[in-house]
Amino acid sequence: MAAPREAFRWYARHRVPGQPGYAVVGMSTTAFPDGTVIELPPPAQRPPGWQFEVHVAAPGRLPHRVVVADAPGTRAPALWYVVLPVAGTASGVDLVAFSTGDRPDGDVLDAAEFGALGIGWDNQVGALRWDAATGLGDQIYVAPQARRRGVGTKIGVAAVVLAAARGWAPVRVDGRRTDLGEAWLTAMWPRSWDDLPACTSPAPPMTPATEAVGVPERNLLPDPGSGRAVARVAAATTGCAPLHAPDPRPATGRPAP
Ligand SMILES: CC(C)(COP(=O)(O)OP(=O)(O)OC[C@H]1O[C@@H](n2cnc3c(N)ncnc32)[C@H](O)[C@@H]1OP(=O)(O)O)[C@@H](O)C(=O)NCCC(=O)NCCS
Predict the structure, then answer these.
(1) Is the CB of 218 under 6 A from ligand 1?
(2) Domain range summary for the chain, segments of one domain joined by +
(3) Rounded Cα–Cα distance for residues 226 and 180 (Å)
(4) What pLDDT sits at residue 242?
(5) Measured in angstroms, how far is the CA atom of residue 199 from the centroid of ligand 1?
(6) Nearest CA, atom 8, ligand 1
(7) 203 Cα: distance to centroid of ligand 1 (angstroms)
(8) pLDDT of 4
């Protein structure tokens, strides 16, 4: 089992004087008091204990790169991301992850840039949906074959960093989750983040039977003894639809993320 990842304690901000863009590297070491921001010249460095590297073209812009360090003892696949508004919501955001060689690890694209690549949404390996205004996570889904390789954790950390760098509300979770979500959250939740809210509202499994064929059980069910005890609820009792292949149509009339 992967060790819990460390949280971010202090930050190195790299920028060229007079230019709007900058990169920030978050560190987990105790070299400086929590929350310290050290100003350094570019390029960004990744010393031992780095947790993420985010690049922003100008304050208030969506980051164009979010590179997440592997959790201790793990090696997650390279991921690049597409950020798009959730159709029919005022501030819903999807962070959709791909692991193809079309873009380097950490690149963040908008829907137009993604469209120019000519890649189908069905190539995604996972996605996280949350509300940019409240920070509340709604759904995370990783393709069954891609699970247990750090993809869910990498997407979760990327969303936390992206929201913070963009100036959105801090990403958070409430008490709703599936058994798998509970097992995952209790394992990956960094010790120094806010307390993980208790699971008060168990949700039914999200993996469609068609996607479970040939997938190892450890990718589909919580390991014995993992997570906290959560009641199993029949899948038919809620409208908790899998987040997969989000609606790729342009979200006209809604603010872009
Ligand atoms: C929950 C989910 C997103 C996790 O994605 P993932 O890519 O497998 O997660 P990671 O690889 O980052 O897992 C990190 C750690 O979490 C824990 N974990 C993840 N899946 C687990 C499982 N089935 N049983 C026990 N622990 C698990 C482990 O400690 C794991 O490290 P390890 O694989 O080295 O043991 C994925 O299982 C999923 O999409 N499930 C279906 C949708 C769903 O239920 N979403 C949650 C909604 S609340």
Answers:
(1) yes
(2) 7-59
(3) 9
(4) 34
(5) 16
(6) 147
(7) 15
(8) 57
